[in-house]
């Protein structure tokens, strides 16, 4: 009970501080402050259900559901909410060891939830697909075995997965393990191309942490350890550019496109900051431009985010405050 009370107090305090800091944020590389989003203080309606550390969050805009992947001893690994914040239930699934990234797929053929598992035990080093109720469908990688093989696929602490509208799969593999690579798989899990070298040069990575794909065929990767975002052509894997200047203080931990793909939402964990960056049109990637920032309270530690492309809201999984918070377009 004491922990629950402390968590509630911390959640309220950080929410209020976040609102105050949002109103007074410092905006480098901007001509004028632009407040694009505001905190939804009513989400969730059942904050006491956060019993562990939320590492990832995924939105299914078609079913109006929000999935939260959390870690901790004797806690359910996935919590399910409505987009309005009502708690619907939890997955007490023994096949999930240490969830990291979580991603939803909802199209005309199926609905599913993908989870990357960075555990080092019997179920880790894998990427798992579940149905919306939490039933395991399939596993990519050999459970409990770290590796770099491509046939069959093996992973070492895979950080995140993204599945595009064609069913093609993008994976960043290497949340501190053996691998530092970006893989593109076909819908039937064949490797189409890969960049897999550790380093600081073009197409090299150091702890690639998050990945997303836009509608004009660009793959955006948060190259966390190198404090940059790298961009690739989704068909060929060709390197298109990088952004560094926005991340001198801390590396990017997440990459998610807003509704209409006008902005890219990127969080920085160690300085507790949410950045909204301008997305360039087709052509030159150029340099990163910060359009707006949300400076969270010290110790909130935002980790991964997801966007509801239908409503425009985005959700932030916060390790320090042990909660997920929702931001909505500013009215």
From TrEMBL:
Keyword vocabulary terms for this entry: Glycoprotein, Membrane, Repeat, Signal, Transmembrane, Transmembrane helix
Keyword Translocase: no
Keyword Plastid belongs to the record: no
Chain ranges passing through the membrane: 9-27
Stored InterPro entries: 6-blade_b-propeller_TolB-like (IPR011042), NHL_repeat (IPR001258)
NHL repeats mapped onto the chain: 196-235
Name of the protein in question: NHL repeat-containing protein 3
Source organism: Pleurodeles waltl
């Amino acid at each position: 009970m004491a922990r629950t009370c402390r968590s509630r107090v911390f959640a309220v305090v950080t929410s209020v501080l976040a609102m105050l800091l949002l109103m007074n944020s410092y905006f480098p590389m901007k001509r004028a402050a632009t407040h694009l989003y505001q905190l939804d203080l009513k989400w969730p309606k059942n904050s006491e259900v956060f019993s562990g550390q939320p590492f990832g969050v995924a939105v299914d805009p078609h079913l109006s559901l929000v999935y939260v992947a959390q870690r901790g001893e004797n806690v359910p690994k996935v919590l399910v909410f409505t987009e309005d914040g009502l708690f619907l239930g939890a997955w007490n699934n023994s096949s999930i060891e240490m969830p990291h990234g979580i991603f939803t797929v909802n199209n005309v053929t199926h609905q599913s939830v993908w989870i990357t598992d960075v555990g080092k035990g019997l179920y880790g080093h894998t990427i798992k697909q579940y149905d919306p109720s939490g039933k395991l469908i399939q596993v990519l990688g050999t459970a409990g075995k770290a590796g770099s093989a491509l046939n069959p696929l093996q992973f070492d602490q895979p950080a995140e997965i993204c599945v595009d509208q064609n069913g093609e799969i993008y994976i960043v593999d290497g949340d501190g393990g053996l691998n530092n690579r970006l893989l593109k798989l076909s819908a039937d899990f064949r490797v189409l191309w890969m960049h897999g070298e550790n380093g600081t040069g073009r197409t090299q990575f150091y702890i690639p942490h998050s990945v997303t794909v836009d509608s004009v065929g660009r793959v955006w990767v948060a190259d966390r350890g190198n404090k940059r975002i790298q961009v690739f052509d989704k068909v060929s894997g060709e390197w298109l550019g990088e952004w560094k200047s926005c991340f001198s203080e801390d590396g990017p931990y997440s990459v998610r496109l807003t509704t209409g793909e006008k902005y890219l939402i990127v969080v920085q964990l160690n300085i507790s900051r949410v950045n909204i960056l301008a997305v360039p049109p087709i052509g030159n990637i150029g340099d990163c431009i910060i359009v707006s920032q949300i400076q969270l309270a010290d110790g909130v530690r935002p980790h991964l985010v997801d966007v509801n492309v239908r409503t425009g809201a985005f959700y932030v999984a916060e390790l320090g405050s042990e909660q997920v918070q929702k931001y909505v377009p500013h009215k």
